[in-house]
Every structure is written in C-alpha cells, then in structure tokens.
Amino acid sequence: xxxxxxxxxxxxxxxxxxxxxxxxxxxxxxxxxxxxxxxxxxxxxxxxxxxxxxxxxxxxxxxxxxxxxxxxxxxxxxxxxxxxxxxxxxxxxxxxxxxxxxxxxxxxxxxxxxxxxxxxxxxxxxxxxxxxxxxxxxxxxxxxxxxxxxxxxxxxxxxxxxxxxxxxxxxxxxxxxxxxxxxxxxxxxxxxxxxxxxxxxxxxxxxxxxxxxxxxxxxxxxxxxxxxxxxxxxxxxxxxxxxxxxxxxxxxxxxxxxxxxxxxxxxxxxxxxxxxxxxxxxxxxxxxxxxxxx
Length: 294
Known about the structure:
The chain has 294 residues and is an alpha/beta fold. Helices cover 39% and strands 24% of the residues.
C-alpha cells in the first residue's frame, strides 16, 4: 500500500537535492534530517513508480526519467508560486471599511479570532465591530453584516448560515445540591430560573419531547438583559439558566455550570451572516463572507 505524501513538499525536497547535488546539502538547506530527505525522495519515486536518481557513495545524477520530471516539477512549482503571489496581491489591493455587529460574548464562537485572521489576510480593510444583543436595522445603522443566532424573522436581508451552536439548560453544582435537579422541563416552574429579558419570549422556555416542540412557563427572582450576566449568576448558584453554549463556555469547561435536561434539548441554533443585498458592492464585505464560509 502506497504511503500518503505531501506531494508539493516532496517535490520541493527533490528539487533541493538536485540543486545541491547531495542529500546532505539539501538537508542543510532545508534544515531537515538527511534520513527525512532520503525518505521523501524514495516516496516520490514510489509515487511515480520510476527511478529518478542514480546514486552511490561518490556521486549522484538524474536518470532519464528524472531529467524529464525535474523540468516539469519546476514548471509546476513556478505556477503554484505565481498563483499564490497573485492571490496575495489581490488581497493586498482590497480595501475599504467593514462594519460588523454580533451578539455579546461572540468570542465564544471564535468570532474574535476569525476577525483577527481576516485582518491579517486583508491589511487594507478597516473593521468596526460592535457587540450588542439587540437586533439593529442594518440599513439605517449603516451595518455591512450582522452575525445572528437562532431563528430569523422573514426580511429582505440575505442570510447565509455558517455554523451551529447548542442552546443549553444549566445550573451550578451548588444550586443542584441545595434545590435538587429538574428531571423534566415541566418541573422548571418549581425552580428559581434566571430570566434573560432581551429574548423575545423570556418567560417561555422551549424544549423537545417525542419529536414535538413544547414550551414551559418559567419565573424567578432575577431578571437581567445580558447573557453574560445570566451565566455569571447561574454559576454563583442563583438559579437555572438557559443560554447558547458559547455565552457560558468558560463556566461549562470549568464545571461551574453543568447541563441539565439534555434529553429535552432543542435543535442546535443556526449561526448566520445577515446582510443587505445592496451591500454586496462593498469588496470588503465580499471578502469577509468568503473568508468566514471557507
């Protein structure tokens, strides 16, 4: 069975061997062990099922097949390098401004890292990123693209889903020890629930039973308008919470919050790019959409 190889890397190593006229010279040039150089050349010969180098203890030269392949290899690498240079040039010439909105705590979705990497690829694009839980009017606010989670109302906006996130019901170990654990959503009215009032229906929590979506009315002593605060108070033992997992990732990872009622979880929420059609004339937006979806 033929071993899988990184063909482009192996070709570059072979060319270095030919140009340096020795494995040891290629080893020094590429900072690779001589044994690795030899293995890559052997893999290349095996891949093409032909001998490319004649070698002994005193000399090394190309076979007839090797002479033909070295010319073709150099042409292929030149084309690949040219494509990369052209792409880098196109990226460096794209400029403009890009205004983005997302929910608070979007770092849990990795959005901060994605924006950082995007800016490294497109250094001439200026980014303005606003994190807020309310849904703004993109046209009136001059927003190029919004990152939104969950069900979206019908509109004239273009929607492209690029990821999904779980919506979890959670409580702290301290709360569970003190008040017990709900074994069915219908038991939630008997528990202290932390209400996030920025939701459209904050006092109705959805769940799935027998493949059917249902809701249960909940209440509690604490109402807040930010998911970050809901997660904090839940981790402090003040009640049961229901949030997208990215808003409480650190608490889940540390064990300060634990999921409950997992057999009744709703389907994962869509994470989508939402933007007005007329914004597509902005090359910065086109580049951002292509990058996020790649």
